[in-house]
């Protein structure tokens, strides 16, 4: 027998098997043939595996949306992953916002209250962007990858063996049907032999499938550990963001309650409405620290006669030779000069002297 004859016979046998399964499946659906039921334990395992697969896919996809809300970016990352190539690094939203704030603050002038605040906020936003990037990387490695490996690996193997079990069951039931229809002794003997073979193959495949399905419990345990890793990554991220914002709040807390714009026109703070009284005491406590240099202190600085001591609230880099650079928490001597801009005082540190922004100072008693 040559290879071609062997292939032809094999194709014919496969076609006969497929036809037999199709007939058996159709008759079962029409209620014209009996169906071998799987034992309850195996059915429960199959149901548990299917449930695990469905919810794992949903959790995985929604986690991807949480970590990367931009659908176009997710599609791009998916394509690069399938091509086994690294996706190009892109600036994220907090980093982009931070850069805009820094650029705006630089143009408005680091020496102005608003410009300096923008730069401080921008630097914090960029730190948050870095933390966000680290969260995505850690979560993808420790949480998403194991879930994806289950869907694309273990569950595919389970689905393959489950389909094979379904085929073996159809073969078994088709053999039972043929045995019932067999009348001649020779045909009946052949059908009995076929039934024993198909029963053995079905039992063997059921055992293989059962062993695979019992591994779902181990999968749940593994995914639980991955979930803990994901929660820890989120805790780290939110703790970092909280600390960054807390530090930023402390820096902005050194700013006066009433800011002066660059054209020296005073901006009037809005009067709180009656509805603002519903704010909780904890919220009021947290926001009250934003005002350290009070308007009365600002007036004292401008109207003090002679020289006074003042504490520097935060760093300031002199823009030119007429200004004096400052370091946070240092104490300098300040005094007013007739005709000087209302936002500035003269500062003195040893032999160094120059203009200093009034919003950077706190008058000492």
Helix proportion: 55-70%
Low-pLDDT segments: 257-296
Mean pLDDT, as a whole number?
81
- Binned strand content: 5-15%
Q: What's the total helix number?
A: 9
Structural class: alpha+beta
- Tell how many strands the DSSP assignment holds: 5
The SSE order reads: HHHHHHHHHEEEEE
Write the layout of secondary structure elements.
Blueprint lengths: L2 H27 L10 H28 L3 H12 L10 H16 L4 H69 L3 H29 L2 H37 L28 H8 L6 H9 L4 E5 L18 E5 L8 E6 L2 E6 L3 E3 L2
Antiparallel strand pairs: 1-2, 1-5, 2-3, 3-4
Helix pairs in contact: 1-5, 2-5, 2-6, 4-5, 5-6, 5-7
Q: Could you describe the 3D structure shown?
A:
The protein has helices spanning about 5-30, 40-65, 70-80, 95-110, 115-180, 185-215, 215-250, 280-290, 295-305; strands at about 310, 330-335, 345-350, 350-355, 360-365. The chain is of the alpha+beta class. Strands 4-3-2-1-5 form a five-stranded antiparallel β-sheet, with helices on one face. Helix 2 runs antiparallel to helix 5, helix 4 packs antiparallel against helix 5 (about 115-180) and helix 5 (about 115-180) packs antiparallel against helix 6. The longest helix is centred in the middle third of the chain and has 69 residues, at about 115-180. The radius of gyration is 38 Å and the shape is rod-shaped.
């Amino acid at each position: 027998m040559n290879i071609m004859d062997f292939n032809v016979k094999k194709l014919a046998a496969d076609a006969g098997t497929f036809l037999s399964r199709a007939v058996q499946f159709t008759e079962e659906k029409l209620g014209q043939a009996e169906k071998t039921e799987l034992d309850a334990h195996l059915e429960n395992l199959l149901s548990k595996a299917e449930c695990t697969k469905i919810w794992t896919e949903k959790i995985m996809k929604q986690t991807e949306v949480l970590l990367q809300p931009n659908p176009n970016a997710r599609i791009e990352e998916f394509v690069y992953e399938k091509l086994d190539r690294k996706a190009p690094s892109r600036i994220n939203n907090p980093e982009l916002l931070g850069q805009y704030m820094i650029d705006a603050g630089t143009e408005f002038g680091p020496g102005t209250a608003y410009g300096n605040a923008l730069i401080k906020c921008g630097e914090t936003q960029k730190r948050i962007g870095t933390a966000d990037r680290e969260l995505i990387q850690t979560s993808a490695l420790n949480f998403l990858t194991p879930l994806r490996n289950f869907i694309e690996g273990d569950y595919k193997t389970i689905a393959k063996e489950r389909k094979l079990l379904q085929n073996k069951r159809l073969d078994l039931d088709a053999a039972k049907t043929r045995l019932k229809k067999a009348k001649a002794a020779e045909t009946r003997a052949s059908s009995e032999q076929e039934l024993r073979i198909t029963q053995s193959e079905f039992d063997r495949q059921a055992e293989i499938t059962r062993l695979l399905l019992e591994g779902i419990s181990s999968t749940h345990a593994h995914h639980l550990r991955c979930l803990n890793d994901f929660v820890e990554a989120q805790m780290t991220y939110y703790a970092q963001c909280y600390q960054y914002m807390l530090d930023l709040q402390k820096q902005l807390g050194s700013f006066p309650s009433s800011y002066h714009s660059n054209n020296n026109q005073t901006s009037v703070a809005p009067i709180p409405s009656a509805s603002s009284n519903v704010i909780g005491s904890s919220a009021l406590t947290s926001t009250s620290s934003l005002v350290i240099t009070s308007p009365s202190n600002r007036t004292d600085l401008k109207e003090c006669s002679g020289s006074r001591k003042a504490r520097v609230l935060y760093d300031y880099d002199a823009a030119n030779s007429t200004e004096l650079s400052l370091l946070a928490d240092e104490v300098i001597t300040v005094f007013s000069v007739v005709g000087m801009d209302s936002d500035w005082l003269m500062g003195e540190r040893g032999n160094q002297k120059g203009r200093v922004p009034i919003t950077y100072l706190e008058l000492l008693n």
